[in-house]
Design goal:
This protein is of the alpha/beta class and 362 residues long. 26% of the residues lie in helices and 25% in strands. It has nine helices and 26 strands. A seven-stranded mixed β-sheet has the order 5-4-1-6-10-7-11, with helices on both faces. Strands 12-15-18-21-24 form a five-stranded parallel β-sheet. Strand 4, helix 2 and strand 5 form a beta-alpha-beta unit.
């Protein structure tokens, strides 16, 4: 990958997410304290792209407002429903609105919160190093149902992608799947995106048809394998959202334990992505650390605690308590059964334990 990053990262965030059965747009659901779209924006930012583009379905909707607030440097492009639809139409809308990008263009989905920035960097580097017109991010799926299958020739070269609804029985047995995420040559993408067919089961413009178009044009189609299938899995319903939270939480716990934090019961401990912990922290069972919570070295939190945007000084102890937007001074003891809240709340002395008990009894 060039030192300046790809020419653009396009994040597709126009889907309706009807299977979530909720008023909140799918990509604005939170996973470990950050929206799914926020996770993808963070992964994209790791590439240091020259342009970031977010495709939305409504210029005045919640997703467009979120993008404007959390990624103000991004160009927000509206995919209008004008008789055509699909991922290919979304990217065509970007090209028609902003023009062709000269250089590598990475396309990702907004509902893949487990995607790592390192994986996108690997995709971009593989693409630029191979000279391919397009490089597809692939994965080996334990159950490929619902995914587009990677089609290769006898020499093992990718020739195209077939969506499951259009695949033959033999093609459906293929376990190498397309993540739907790609690295493109921007100029070639701008040309091919105009020629997408809609003669498929959904009647949509599939971005996954672009590799086959470029292959027929005589260009090389590359692939980059994502070793962790979880990373490329989209979230389409509440059950998948819950699983994404569990997977990402396990990653966070593993990272903190490797950094010297003691977690007594990982199965009952939840930590948000913006939480900061110093070495020597001890976290008891049934504890949730949310938002911008900070815990200093040697502090003991839990069991049974909820800390939200709280600051806990070194050596402090918090037991079976709720602390929100509050400061627990070094060496202080809080709880059991205390509830401390407010930006100016501060607990300094060991008497907090007794006051917490009195508050609970009164």
């Amino acid at each position: 990958m060039s030192s300046s990053g790809p020419a653009a990262v396009i994040i597709l965030a126009a889907g309706e997410g009807t299977r979530m059965r909720a008023a909140l747009p799918k990509m604005l659901n939170e996973v470990c304290g950050r929206t799914m779209l926020g996770h993808v924006m963070a992964a994209a930012a790791d590439l240091r792209p020259q342009r970031t583009v977010i495709v939305v379905g409504d210029a005045k909707g919640q997703v467009a407002r979120y993008a404007g607030e959390h990624c103000p440097q991004a160009a927000v492009v509206v995919q209008e429903r004008n008789g055509s639809w699909g991922t290919g139409h979304a990217v065509r809308t970007v090209v028609e609105t902003l023009g062709a990008f000269h250089g590598s263009v990475i396309v990702v989905f907004s509902d893949t919160p487990m995607l790592r920035g390192e994986t996108l960097a690997m995709l971009a580097a593989r693409h630029e190093g191979s000279g391919a017109a397009v490089t597809v991010l692939t994965a080996q799926a334990p159950d490929p149902t619902g995914y587009g299958r990677i089609i290769r020739d006898e020499a093992g070269q990718v020739t195209g992608i077939i969506e499951e609804a259009d695949a033959s029985a033999e093609q459906r047995r293929i376990t190498e799947v397309s993540s739907g995420m790609f690295a493109f040559d921007g100029d070639l993408l701008a040309d091919a995106i105009k020629r997408l067919p809609t003669a498929n089961a959904a009647g949509e413009e599939y971005l996954t048809d672009v590799p086959a178009i470029l292959y027929v044009d005589g260009h090389k189609i590359g692939s980059a394998l994502c070793a962790d299938f979880d990373e490329v899995q989209g979230v389409n319903d509440q059950a998948q959202l819950a699983r994404a939270r569990r997977v990402l939480n396990e990653r966070l716990l593993a990272r903190w334990m490797a950094a010297g934090v003691t977690i007594m019961d990982p199965a009952s401990t939840w930590i948000d992505v913006d939480v900061r912990l110093e070495p020597g922290v001890r976290i008891g069972p049934g504890t949730q650390l949310e938002g911008s919570t900070f815990v200093g070295a040697g502090a003991s939190i839990g069991p049974g605690c909820l800390l939200r945007a709280a600051t806990v000084g070194p050596g402090a102890t918090v037991l079976k308590s709720v602390c929100e937007a509050s400061v627990i001074e070094a060496g202080a003891t809080v709880g059991p059964f205390a509830h401390i809240t407010g930006q100016n709340a501060s607990t300094r002395d060991p008497g907090a334990r007794e006051r917490g008990q009195q508050d609970e009894e009164s």
